[in-house]
């Protein structure tokens, strides 16, 4: 079986999938990829089902493979090169055995993804392959780690797709939540009229936002009964600076929640980099269901949207190595 | 406030893909039993489109696919199930156990005992006597894996959370607020006051049963000295004893 060899890794490089089901009742949140759209894009570029991939928070690492392997690069664009030759992001490529893949820092957004042809064959724990850092389930990858890959049944590479823009903040659609009614109408209106800035504090649990003026704290906040928390919840601790909770959030909490960001806008939350601006707009259930329908259509159409990467020879620094790489692909396609 | 006029049980939506059946708006023994029993009934019903089900203190949560099963249809199914019986009269789950978890109260290990006692209007000695003799029940697991909410403590312990967060309490920390304990399964920030320290590991993936506690289990936190605790810390079971409840 093929292996991915980690020669170097940034501090937030983890195995992630679509998350676990069935453990909320025991206090373990679903977890999984922060940007699930990027996970789906990676799978589409390799024309394989969505599985586990490598998530890279802010910075990638240096990787090699024991045998030739297809790879896809999605999510936050990062500087990537194969044996020194720049690689196009949001595309799939062929990686020869022994070649070195270098993935640097994100030029925008937060979470980049490296998807491997065939997928990662790591053992599931409690029904998932994803590392859950908050729960202490698994750990971040480090130099010297090796991960087994499943057999790759596909052979296409050199595909690209145009990702939905989501790496620079923007407007998030919000549904009312359990405690929205505790906020006076004027406060909700002020929230919708505000532009908030993504703070430097943020991780897979959630991101902190800085209000431009006064915060959004609630005076009755200290004795609210702890209740279910879901990803997307906008939770407001005592200091009034909201958190948007993400994949690895706690399962219950007692701080008031102003609303819940709809699932279709969560990739935008995950990829909002520190300093970027976010705004909020309350929507009703009908509009949120419409957005969800559109989001699922988009996911279903990704595979079709992935098209051959057209390379201009003038842009290719080392034409010989590309020829070799695509030569491998072409050979497999013919067999 | 509008919330005080609510009648229970009631069904509310949680985000786009969740419904919450609430049996009360404060911690209440019957409402907690109702939530646990109702969740078991929802799971037994095995409705198509329902993806996951859990309980918090006095409510049952369902996550579902809203494009497959509409909010209205699921709400109707829930209303039907609610009307089938008096859920507040439901029994506790089967297979419950009683655990005794040795605890150091106060000292440098649990620095907020005196402060919490003062807020509760007790001396530190009275506080330890009250907390170490209380038999509490796991009302819900939440926040972090295997982490229990335990209630209900005597009325004196109806104290609020702090306004500011304690940046970090260690794994095994016993904290108190609103007539409840929480026992921490991970090192984490909290708004609750840290009054005791245990060596309990609530979630351990390398153990046959990774989760130490289940909702419905009962727990006591007997007081031990700091010296005894140092010994207990080395023991594989952290000094915890358990027996079946019938």
Tally of alpha and pi helices of chain A: 6
> Would you state the CATH class of the largest domain in chain B?
Mainly Beta
How many strands, what sense, and barrel or not for the largest sheet of chain B? Answer: 9 strands, mixed
The CA-CA distance between the termini of chain B, in Å, is 42 Å
Profile the largest sheet of chain A.
Answer: 7 strands, mixed, barrel
Reported CATH architecture of the largest domain in chain B: Beta Barrel
Q: How many extended strands of chain B?
A: 15
Mean pLDDT of chain A: 92
State the helical fraction of chain B.
Answer: 10-25%
Dominant shape of chain A: globular
- Residue stretches of chain A low in confidence (pLDDT < 50, at least 5 long) are 319-335
Order of helix and strand elements from N to C terminus of chain B:
EEHEEHEEHHEEEEEEEEHE
Which band does the percent of strand residues of chain B land in?
Answer: 25-35%
Oligomeric status of the shown chains?
heterodimer
Task: Give a nutshell description of this structure.
The complex is a heterodimer of chains A (335) and B (246). Chain A has 335 residues and is α+β, with helices and mostly antiparallel strands.
Which features characterize this protein?
heterodimer, A: 335 residues, alpha+beta, Cyclophilin, 2 domains, seven-stranded mixed barrel, six-stranded antiparallel β-sheet, globular, disordered C terminus, B: 246 residues, Gyrase A, domain 2, nine-stranded mixed β-sheet, four-stranded antiparallel β-sheet, 5 helices, 15 strands
């Amino acid at each position: 079986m093929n292996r991915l060899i980690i020669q170097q890794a940034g501090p937030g490089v983890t195995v992630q999938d679509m998350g676990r089901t069935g453990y909320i009742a025991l206090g373990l949140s679903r977890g999984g990829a922060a940007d699930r759209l990027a996970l789906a894009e990676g799978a589409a570029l390799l024309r394989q089902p969505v599985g586990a991939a490598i998530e890279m928070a802010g910075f990638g690492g240096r990787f090699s493979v024991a045998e030739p392997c297809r790879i896809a690069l999605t999510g936050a664009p990062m500087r990537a090169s194969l044996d020194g030759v720049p690689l196009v992001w949001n595309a799939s490529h062929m990686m020869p055995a022994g070649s070195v893949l270098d993935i640097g820092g994100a030029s925008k957004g937060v979470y980049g993804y490296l998807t491997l042809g065939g997928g990662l064959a790591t053992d599931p724990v409690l029904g998932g392959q994803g590392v859950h850092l908050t729960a202490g389930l698994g750990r971040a990858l480090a130099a010297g780690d090796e991960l087994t890959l499943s057999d790759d049944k596909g052979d296409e590479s050199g595909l690209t797709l145009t990702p939905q823009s989501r790496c620079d903040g923007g407007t998030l659609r919000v549904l009312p939540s359990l405690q929205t009614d505790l906020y006076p109408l004027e406060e909700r209106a002020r929230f919708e009229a505000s532009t908030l800035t993504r703070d430097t504090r943020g991780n897979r649990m959630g991101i902190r936002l800085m209000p431009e003026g006064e915060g959004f704290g609630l005076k009755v906040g200290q004795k609210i009964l702890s209740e279910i928390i879901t990803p997307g919840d906008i939770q407001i601790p005592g200091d009034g600076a909201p958190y948007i909770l993400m994949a690895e959030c706690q399962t219950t909490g007692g701080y008031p929640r102003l609303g819940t960001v709809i699932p279709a806008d969560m990739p935008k939350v995950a990829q909002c980099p520190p300093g970027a601006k976010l705004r909020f707009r309350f929507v009703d259930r009908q509009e949120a269901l419409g957005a969800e329908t559109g989001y699922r259509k988009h996911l279903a159409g990704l595979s079709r949207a992935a098209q051959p990467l057209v390379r201009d020879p003038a842009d290719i620094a080392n034409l010989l190595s590309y020829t070799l790489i695509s030569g491998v692909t072409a050979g497999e396609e013919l067999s | 406030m509008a919330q005080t006029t609510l009648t229970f049980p009631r069904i509310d939506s949680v985000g786009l893909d969740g419904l919450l059946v609430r049996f009360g708006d404060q911690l209440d023994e019957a409402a907690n039993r109702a939530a646990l029993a109702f969740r078991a009934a929802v799971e037994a019903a095995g409705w198509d489109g329902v993806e996951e089900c859990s309980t918090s203190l006095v409510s049952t949560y369902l996550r579902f696919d809203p494009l497959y099963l509409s909010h209205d249809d699921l709400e109707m199914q829930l209303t039907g199930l609610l009307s089938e019986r008096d859920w507040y009269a439901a029994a506790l789950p089967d297979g419950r156990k009683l655990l005794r978890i040795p605890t150091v109260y106060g000292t440098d290990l649990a620095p907020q005992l005196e402060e919490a006692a003062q807020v509760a209007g007790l001396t530190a000695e009275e506080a330890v006597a009250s907390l170490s003799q209380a038999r509490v029940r796991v009302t819900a697991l939440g926040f972090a894996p295997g982490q229990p909410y335990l209630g209900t403590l005597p009325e004196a312990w109806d104290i609020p959370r702090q306004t500011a967060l304690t940046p970090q309490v260690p794994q095994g920390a016993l904290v108190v607020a609103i007539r409840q304990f929480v026992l921490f399964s991970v090192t984490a920030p909290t708004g609750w006051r840290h009054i005791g320290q245990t060596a309990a590991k609530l979630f351990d993936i390398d153990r046959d049963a990774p989760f130490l506690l289940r909702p419905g289990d009962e727990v006591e936190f007997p007081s031990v000295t700091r010296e005894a605790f140092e010994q207990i810390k080395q023991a594989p079971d952290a000094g915890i004893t358990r027996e079946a409840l019938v």
